[in-house]
Amino acid sequence: MKAVVATKPGAPFELVERDIPEPGAGEILIKVAACGICRGDAATKDARHGIVLPRVPGHEVAGTVARLGTGITKFTLGQRVGVGWRAGGCGKCDACRAGNFNACRNQGTTGQTVDGGYAEYMVAREEAVVSMPDGISLADAAPLLCAGRTTFSGLRNGGAAKGDLVAVHGIGGLGHLAIQYAARMGCRVAVLSRGTEKEALARSLGAEFYIDTRGGDGAAQLKALGGARLLLCTAPNPKEASSLIGGIARNGRMVVVGSAEEPLEIPIQALIGGGIVVSGAGWTSIDDALRFSSDNGVKPMIETFPLAQAATAFDKMMNSTVHFRAVLTMGA
Ligand SMILES: [Zn+2]
Ligand SMILES: [Zn+2]
After folding, report:
1. What percent of the chain has pLDDT over 70?
2. What's the CA-to-centroid distance between 104 and ligand 2, angstroms?
3. Angle CA(259)–CA(265)–CA(271) in degrees, nearest 5?
4. What is the pTM of this model?
5. How far is the CA of 187 from the centre of ligand 1 (A)?
């Protein structure tokens, strides 16, 4: 099979030929149809967090079951499936024993501790595999397995309820999904982004309000709308995200999903007097995110690339010139 591999820290991905892997006990061989490219894949490219190279990146994997290892009970040959960030838990650590499998201390990570989906085939543990709803194509499903699930989790765990004003900061790979989820959850959505070019798109995805942040008064404009019950920060711009805290309603919440190196600056009074909670997205069931997407017509806007162009596609994603998620398709 063809696979794209990170070989040396920081070096461009290489296209190689490999044997198709064998599924062991409790494992499934997946014929990959599509794999999304995510910022998280940069960790594999740079061999961060102790990642050992060579490694096949990719944790937004959609495909069909090609072979079953022994002991598989939940899946059948040919079934449409997906694999996200989690590569399976141990079932034995304190987190697992408390029923919190997403926090397993010994869980693998797809495309980091085990080979991921930048390949024609990959092996995954059964507990890491999700069944794909019918109403969604495999290419569209791929970004939902990380970007979709993350924004969905941020809204669900952030307590977004019908009628709430939800502010979405940024309208890129994560933001364009967050707007759709929030609108379809029945929230009133305000989008904050630099410039006016993306206003029409934001509104077509379900935004009721659009705020151009170039003037620097995004917080005041949110306040004028009554204040956001939830501010979901998807842009990798902590400085601007910090400037929006004043636009969150009392006892509201700021959920950060856009990763960046720089820290946030939180005024202490926002926490003490304002009762504002700041958090990451946390986890929800990946099955819930997929089903919600399928039932409510949430669809990522994707740009597809053949597997051989993974290195180019990855660079485009890192430079934020992809509209809006890059997806590798394996083709025939
Ligand atoms: Zn990701
Ligand atoms: Zn565990």
Report:
1. 100
2. 4
3. 110
4. 0.95
5. 25
